[in-house]
Design a protein that fits this description.
single chain; alpha/beta; three-stranded mixed sheet; 204 residues; 22% strand
């Protein structure tokens, strides 16, 4: 399957999921759209300062710019999430050389403290799995947004091969456990991996 045909299918899947799931789970499209960048801004109102949030946004944009200059089409295949200088890379790439290069480019960005590489190689990719991952991701975001005991969406929530990756920073372990409970309640999830930093209130 060539790239153009595959990318066209992915766009159709994303559109269908964004239109249908808000009706099922009672969240607006605007709420569903609050994931990677939105989570960083929401988090800035709690454990992260506005300065921290904008630093993370700057780091993320810098990494994406480096990837664009290397090979622009890769930005349609990977996700870059940043929390307190910790970078999470997820997605599907064509070969190992691309995977290594993206990690190298991430490390070159000023302010990066850690790079977590969860990028996979394309041989294991298929449209059905991609759609299932997106459905799991939107379900989880919906559950977190609807939970009154979770003040706001301050976590980046990514799904790859039915594995949920949680990235963020919090001082509320009970709240984080509720996020885990919601993740565990979703049918089809194979594993949950947390890269959340637990901090003491008032400390950085």
């Amino acid at each position: 399957m060539n790239f153009i045909k595959k990318f066209s299918q992915l766009k159709k899947i994303n559109i269908i999921i964004l239109l249908v799931l808000p009706l099922i789970y009672g969240c607006s499209g605007a709420q569903i759209a609050t994931s990677s960048a939105g989570a960083a801004v929401a988090a800035s109102e709690d454990e992260k300062s506005l300065g921290d949030a904008f630093d993370d946004i700057t780091i993320g944009l810098g990494i994406k710019d480096r990837i664009f200059m290397y090979e622009a089409v890769l930005l349609t295949k990977i996700n870059v999430n940043v929390e307190n200088g910790k970078v999470l890379l997820t997605g599907i790439l064509a070969d190992q050389n691309q995977r290594v290069e993206v990690v190298r480019l991430a490390w070159k960005q000023v302010g990066v403290k850690e790079v977590i590489n969860e990028i996979e190689i394309e041989e294991s990719f298929n449209i059905k799995s991609y759609a299932e991952d997106k459905i799991i991701q939107v379900q989880l975001i919906s559950k977190v947004l609807a939970d009154k005991n979770i003040k706001k969406l301050k976590y980046n929530l990514e799904v790859q091969n039915k594995v949920i990756f949680i990235l963020g920073v919090t001082s509320n372990e009970e709240e984080l456990e509720r996020v885990f409970e919601h993740a565990r309640s979703i049918k089809g999830v194979n594993d949950i991996i947390s890269y959340v930093d637990i901090i003491t209130p008032g400390k950085k």
